[in-house]
Amino acid sequence: MSRQWMCALILSVVVGCAHAAEEDELMGFIVDDTISHIGHDFYYSFSERLRDTSRMDFNLVVRERPDARWGSLVTVEYQQRLVYRRFLPPNTVELKEEAYAAADWVRRQVVQRKLEALLQDTTDLEKDEL
């Protein structure tokens, strides 16, 4: 076995493992953790807008905490961090517009956090240690 062929084999294995590690995580999920009818309607419009306007190379969780007096507290999490929070009154008429505005806001926040992660100086620590 020639040395050149052995180097090519090792290089292809390393590149293949790195490519497989990038593909191990599934992207494009928006998890629905809503409870009420208002929460489900918000989730449907929110996810519809995001899927129409972005590549969806990230995952989100939409949560709802309903309250009989104040309405529903809707939150959106990206990488286990809060990126959106809003109370929706129980008699929300223009829910679709609220959900579309929330989707646009969340998309901008995800892009900003990705840019911050790329520009973060991690010479001393690995990303998971920060």
Describe the protein in words:
The chain is of the alpha+beta class. It has a domain of 90 residues. Helix content is 48%, strand content 22%. It is built from three helices and four strands. The chain has a four-stranded mixed sheet, covered by helices on one side. Helix 2 packs across helix 3.
Question: Top keywords for this entry?
Answer:
130 residues; alpha+beta; four-stranded mixed beta sheet; 3 helices; 4 strands; 22% strand
List the helices and strands and how they pair.
Elements: H1 3-23, E1 30-33, H2 37-53, E2 60-67, E3 71-78, E4 81-88, H3 95-119
Parallel strand pairs: 1-2
Antiparallel strand pairs: 2-3, 3-4
Helix pairs in contact: 2-3
Summed up, what is this model?
By secondary structure, the chain is α+β, with helices and mostly antiparallel strands. The protein has helices at residues 3-23, 37-53, 95-119, and strands at 30-33, 60-67, 71-78, 81-88.
Straight-line N-to-C gap: 44 Å
Number of helices: 3
According to DSSP, the number of beta strands is 4
Quaternary organisation: single chain
Envelope shape:
elongated
Q: Which stretches are low in confidence, meaning pLDDT under 50 for 5 or more residues running?
A: 17-22
Largest beta-sheet characterization: 4 strands, mixed
Over all CA atoms, what is the radius of gyration?
A: 21 Å
Helix content: 40-55%
